[in-house]
């Protein structure tokens, strides 16, 4: 609902927080209630309810109700189709690029997977699967992790980062430390090949997908294309490793 994305809690008084809790516990019925009904059930005054509505950014209670109704209707619209990814989700040279990155993995002393939020979960999965097939890998989900210090005096590092938008500020700030580092090769997995993350990376494994947000703050963009890239990358790297072992 319209109030669920509110984050500026420092501006809220104890009474405001009581109203906010009432709103979040009664998401379905709040858009249909009157000010005095909310005040009665939340055990506050009418004026307290209105002050809270104004803090949410609405000039009037009717405006708040209209916005809440619209958000509720949007939330109830569902699409029951299962949309699997196709070749259209990827550039025509995606497999050749995956081959290049997989080959780079063979010569790397360690592989670091980075991401924030849902992309961090992908990075963790990628690191686990990569380690399972015999590569020295780990995951960094904290953009403030002292990675610069950890990689000091090391070489042949492959740093693979995940970001749908390619514009995650904290991630970009972390990677800026390695742009000119000869011992770290940057790889981006992103839906925007023209993003800052992509431009600062040596290799870009891109895909296309519709970015989706609700309540302005919550990212519901599918990570299936990025997961597909991970699976293909690991499969290719394992194949190359097996071929190399057969030659020995």
What would your notes on this structure say?
- The chain is an alpha/beta fold.
- It folds into 2 domains: 9-76, Orthogonal Bundle (Arc Repressor Mutant, subunit A); 87-247, Glucose-6-phosphate isomerase like protein, domain 1 (Rossmann fold).
- Helix content is 46%, strand content 13%.
- It contains 10 helices and 7 strands.
- The protein has helices spanning 14-25, 35-42, 46-55, 61-76, 94-106, 118-132, 147-150, 169-175, 196-199, 224-247, and strands at residues 110-115, 137-140, 157-163, 184-190, 203-206, 213-214, 218-219.
- The strands form 2 sheets. It has a 5-stranded parallel β-sheet with strand order 2-1-3-4-5. It has a two-stranded antiparallel ribbon with strand order 6-7.
- β6 (213-214) and β7 form a beta hairpin.
- α2 (35-42) packs across α3.
- It is elongated and about 80 Å long.
What is the terminal-to-terminal distance?
Answer: 61 Å
Our count of helices gives 10
User: CATH first level of the largest domain: which class?
Assistant: Alpha Beta
Mean of all residue-level pLDDT scores: 87
User: In CATH, what is the homologous superfamily of the largest domain?
Assistant: Glucose-6-phosphate isomerase like protein, domain 1
CATH architecture of the largest domain: 3-Layer(aba) Sandwich
Q: Spans of 5+ residues with little confidence (pLDDT < 50)?
A: none
Helix-strand blueprint:
Layout: H1 14-25, H2 35-42, H3 46-55, H4 61-76, H5 94-106, E1 110-115, H6 118-132, E2 137-140, H7 147-150, E3 157-163, H8 169-175, E4 184-190, H9 196-199, E5 203-206, E6 213-214, E7 218-219, H10 224-247
Parallel strand pairs: 1-2, 1-3, 3-4, 4-5
Antiparallel strand pairs: 6-7
